[in-house]
Amino acid sequence: MRFGLFGTGPWAHQAHAPALAAHPDVEFVGVWGRDPAKAAELAGLHGARAYAGRAELIADVDAVAIALPPDVQAPIALHAAREGRHLLLDKPVAFTNAEAAEIVDAVAEHDLASVVFFTRRLMPQLAEFVADAAATGGWTEARVDHLGSIFTPDNPFGASPWRKESGGLWDVGPHALALVLPVLGPVTEVAAMAGPHDMTHLLLRHASGTISNLTLSVDAPPAAEREDALFAGEAGVRPVPDQPWSPVDALGRAIDQLIAHAAGGPASELDVRFGAEVTAVLVAAQEAVTSGRTVAIGTAR
Questions:
Q1: Are 200 and 172 in contact (CB under 8 A)?
Q2: What CATH number does residue 194 fall under?
């Protein structure tokens, strides 16, 4: 499958480009970026071509991989889908429900494969845990603490303007939701409060009636950084196991799923429909923080 990469930032360097270059079933065609010099540099590292125009790269490939902020990613993904290109997107797929829905509709209309890169959810140990927890059922609660400290001199992601503006809700919130939604089911209501330094607390009511509790930040004190999650219920308390941090391996599995679906296999559990479901919860959470009221999914503006 011929792939084009959109984006030249740290995530494109750490995950996307090396995974595309290493995959045996991928022809890494080219790179487009908002900075042509960075696109040329990244393409040169992996034997690909730097493209000056987005449309030109889309025209030359079968699939696009995007490592760009959500507001930049969404229109490129929609353009690519409308041209019949498969989508490997970063999370969140978009900042608005309308944009996410347009991408979902275009993927369905053109019968395309899609995967959203929820990094650790693509690792086998975590995928197996989530599948087993969903099959077990009987959960009365879930708790996820995902707190990072990215605004330090040694962290390249701290220089990202969209992360500074949107914070942990939109950056690490998708990872937390990728854990709880497959186990507890769709969210119907969201309550949320935000404290100092990007500390955001969500209470989610799922269609099953179960409540999940998410604490999210990318600006926590370094001593408070943690990634902990658990489910509790009739089966007892089940902590989510620690997972290796291997983004290249995870993206390789995303590529596997995309190619398999394009060849007639099953759709990925982490496709754009799931990505749009995650966006809907984040949009509702943002409104809940701003308004101070509980927001029903589907009513957020």
A1: no
A2: 3.30.360.10
